[in-house]
Amino acid sequence: MITGYGIVAKELIKLLSEKQELLIDTYKISFKVTAIVGSKGMIYEEAGLDLPKLLQYGAGSTALMRYAREQRLSLQPPIFREDMLIECSPTDVQTGGAALEYIKNALQANMNIVSVSKGALVCAMPELLKMAKEKECKIKYSGATAAALPTLDIGEFSLAGCKITKIEGILNGTSNFILTKMSEENKSFEAALQIAQESGIAEANPDLDIKGIDSACKILLLANGLLGSQLTLEDIAIQGIMEVTKRDIQHAKINGNDIKLIASASLANRDVRVEVKPKIIKSDNPLIDVKGTNKGILFYTEEMGTICCTGGASHPKGAAAAALKDMINLYR
Amino acid sequence: MITGYGIVAKELIKLLSEKQELLIDTYKISFKVTAIVGSKGMIYEEAGLDLPKLLQYGAGSTALMRYAREQRLSLQPPIFREDMLIECSPTDVQTGGAALEYIKNALQANMNIVSVSKGALVCAMPELLKMAKEKECKIKYSGATAAALPTLDIGEFSLAGCKITKIEGILNGTSNFILTKMSEENKSFEAALQIAQESGIAEANPDLDIKGIDSACKILLLANGLLGSQLTLEDIAIQGIMEVTKRDIQHAKINGNDIKLIASASLANRDVRVEVKPKIIKSDNPLIDVKGTNKGILFYTEEMGTICCTGGASHPKGAAAAALKDMINLYR
User: What EC number(s) does its UniProt record assign (chains A, B) (predicted)?
Assistant: First the structure.
């Protein structure tokens, strides 16, 4: 069952449709999409929706309505009774939006959750994790924490058994693009933001990115998922990049350093301290080489030293592939 | 059951001893070490060896003999009858050494394998994978493919469902140290090798490292594990770094590039092409920032773009933690 049928959900349908054989061959898993919920209601077919047909109609509720008409189905209110929910609704970090209700309903119905949107998790993660534990369900959310860049997986699988003492990340491509422009081309914040907006990287209202809120949401989810904290957005000190000046950056560069918007979570005694702020990054920190819209994450561990992961496509297909990965890892 | 009781195996015993509670709390897994095989024979206790006591005696067969004496055990020939084998014997990439027999015996006895040493896998991976499949057992070997640097896991978990088209890695710390010295301090190969030997980074006989054989073993295991090939060392074109000159490197650096010993595996039609050779790495390739004894790996995928992972401690504790991670991932 999929809630929200935007571009990422459509890309996921495409991957599922193309990779059916590969999933059986490699993982002995076969997924059937029985229900998709859009803003106008749910399409449902017990035997599984006809994915190639659905793909002809593009994304959004219009696509669902056209599919329903062609297949002689009627749109109905969402019913939660499948094995898994893939949550792809628009992110609302203020209230959690419809996604929060969808996830709660799905957990009530003992469904595993793969969340691509981050709003619901940011608003109510402790509550949702508690519900999931009671229902013996799992919640995965790679798509919500930097998508194609592996973040959660590294902590969960590659560092299994290790003590992670600190996580540092450049988790927002837009703000990193702006800081890179300021650093490499000596632009002011305003000029760099304008370039980002003109090239379609920053939105008309760039607040979520430049104020550090998007980064804060992501590091919050990572801290709660990997360091065992139960924090919400209010627990995080968040500082954006609006006040970073050309001079700050050029000053840092004298010693080969640079300024990056760093989202970090660190163990301090038994507490987990999470913050987002522009920081001077030393020349020997691998995050210094994360430039433009790229993202990166650095794990500090007691046993394995530091592990840095960078890259990952930031297009909708990358986010959809992150959701597919979570689906596979839930059932392998 | 553990075969080989060198420093890595001892570090693993230490981790298992320290992390017992954490493993139960986090993963609901409890490991019992019943048997350890050294060159003089096996110590065995059905109820589980007394790990803190064993740790008092250091590593090696002497430690096993002292433990046996204290516990009134007799050293016996290896018997394979546990759930899992952790293979830690000295690596022999020519014949596979004792490790090859240990792994075969263990698979015969339906045991899962975690291999820290790479010799047996390099020599006989297709055969061992076939045996494992017949017996429905699994073989994990993070410790043999760059240890604390996540390589296999990234492919297996973080890129689950993706098509990996190419893997490029700097997988040998010693040769990378030498090339970095040549690049940053304008040393000749011979001078840089000498520095590496004097600082204990290169061995007195550095052939495995500088001739690219160690890198070849690792990329071979990754290609066979992640790209589905069934290759052995003879299928790989291997070129070491002995003929790289100061001039080659300085020439590459004019354009901001550098020369690195790159182990690569790429899909070409239905074949997998694996090679190891010194290559010019462009300034925008994230592997260019992997310096000194550090290692790094770059995955090219169809769905998620490129993903780069660097770092990971190269000490025995890091290798032991990689084995522990494999053990957890086998049973979670």
Answer: 1.1.1.3
Q: B-chain residues within 8 Å CB-CB of A318?
A: 303-305
Q: Which of A159, A160, A311 comes nearest B307 by C-beta?
A: A311
Distance from CA of B77 to the nearest CA of A (A): 32
Rg (CA), chain A: 21
* Cβ count near A174 (within 10 Å): 23
Task: Determine the straight-line distance between the first and last CA of chain A, rounded to whole angstroms.
Answer: 19
Which residues on chain B are in Cβ contact (under 8 Å) with A298? 311
Three-state SS string across B16-27, please?
HHHCHHHHHHHH
DSSP A282-297: -TTSGGGG--TT--EE
* Disruptive mutation site among B142, B154, B158, B309 for chain A (greatest number of A CBs within 10 Å): B158
b/e B43-72 (16+ beta carbons within 10 angstroms → b): bbeeeebebeebbebebbbebbbbbbeeee
Q: Which of A27, A289, A304 sits opposite B289 (nearest CB)?
A: A289
A72 three-state secondary structure: coil
Output the pLDDT for position A314: 83
Q: Are B42 and B75 in contact (CB under 8 A)?
A: yes
Residues 6+ apart with CB under 8 A from B308: A309, A310, A311, B286, B287, B296, B297, B298, B299
Report all structural domains of chain B as residue ranges with CATH numbers, in order of start. Answer: 2-148+316-331 (3.40.50.720), 155-310 (3.30.360.10)
Which residue in B304, B315, B330 has the most chain A C-beta atoms within 10 A of its own C-beta, making it the best mutation to test that interface? B304
Beta bridge pairs of residue B42:
B37, B76
What ipTM was assigned to the predicted interfaces of this complex? Answer: 0.94
Whether A173 and A201 have beta carbons less than 8 Å apart is answered as: yes
pLDDT over 90 at A252, yes or no: yes
Stretch A152-161: mean pLDDT, rounded? 96
Percent of chain A with pLDDT over 90: 95
Name the strands in the sheet holding B271-281, side by side, starting at the edge strand that comes first in the sequence: A237-238, A271-281, A258-268, A164-170, A296-301, A306-311, B306-311, B296-301, B164-170, B258-268, B271-281, B237-238
Residues in chain A: 332
Mean pLDDT of A79-92: 96
